[in-house]
Amino acid sequence: MTLLRTKEIQAVGDDVKKEVNVQMTQQIDSLRLILDSLMESNERLQRRLIADFGMVSGRFASDMDKIDARLEEALYRLDMVVNAARTPTKRVVIDKREEMATNAPPIAEQDPNMMGQESGMGVLVPKSDEETELEKLYATARLDFQRSEYKIAFEGFKQVYEQAGQTEMGENALYWIAFCLLETKQEDKGIQVLERILKQFPQGNKVCLSLFKLAQISETKTETQNQVQYLQRLTAQPQCRETNEAYRAIELLNELVGSDGKIRTQKVPPPPAAPPIH
User: How many angstroms separate the CA atoms of 134 and 128, rounded?
Assistant: First the structure.
């Protein structure tokens, strides 16, 4: 009788253990499903945030480029006004006999194309018609770019570059050619033109901006290695050390590169804890 009772108790215990194991297995499976769902939801949210951030970042960069273009245009026009203001319009002759004695030629009304250029003797030298037309063409192309007429602006800047060659205006035209290409979804060609600026004008005034733009493009393409290389090249340029681009590059490098010199990998935050099952 006692033996039979013991077997019954063992059987009940085994049944209880099986039931508990089944319940535990079900709870574990349920937790796994919840965790998988949360992780999938978190990944979707991250992808959406990254996409939204990339879109906002792209719009911000485009707006900043347009603001830079307008600012550069304003500075260019201001420089023209200042140079014109420094140029005398006429010479007042006080003593006619003194002029005849010194054989000084009279100075006629100032030509509007004489923008303050001086020869080695300090005499104002008028710009050539070709230089004047080139400046007008460049200014027109800049206005076309500001109006988002990128294809028309491209043709204008192209003409300026072909005529200006290895000059500051040629470098500026080549820089805006790159932006015309970028704005018309020709990213690969835009990158090639920016790289061309670095080779043709290694000490030019657009080197810092070109390197920073290349780093931004690499970031949007998730090419972190290239991004870091462009930023490092930027900070190494002597003419870039006191620029806003250099300061921003240093900040980005501190975020991207660890103290060991290795590029940091992005860490995905852990999913939120699963709610308790009652």
Answer: 10
CB 58 within 8 A of CB 65: no
Beta-bridge mates of residue 263: 257
- Tell me which residue of 46, 41, 44 sits closest to 267, measured CA to CA: 46
**In angstroms, rounded to a whole number, what is the distance separating the alpha carbons of residues 238 and 228?**
18
Q: What is the pLDDT along the chain (278 residues), one digit of tens a residue?
A: 676 667 677 777 777 777 778 888 888 888 888 888 888 877 777 777 766 665 565 566 556 665 766 666 665 566 655 555 555 444 444 444 444 444 444 434 444 444 444 444 344 445 566 778 889 999 999 999 999 999 999 999 999 999 998 999 999 999 999 999 999 999 999 999 999 999 999 999 999 999 999 999 999 999 999 999 999 999 999 999 889 999 999 999 999 988 777 887 654 344 455 445 44
Distance CA 234, CA 226 (A): 12
| DSSP code, position 239 | G
Neighbours of 34 (CB within 10 A): 15
Angle between helix axes 187-200 and 207-220 (nearest 10 degrees) is 150
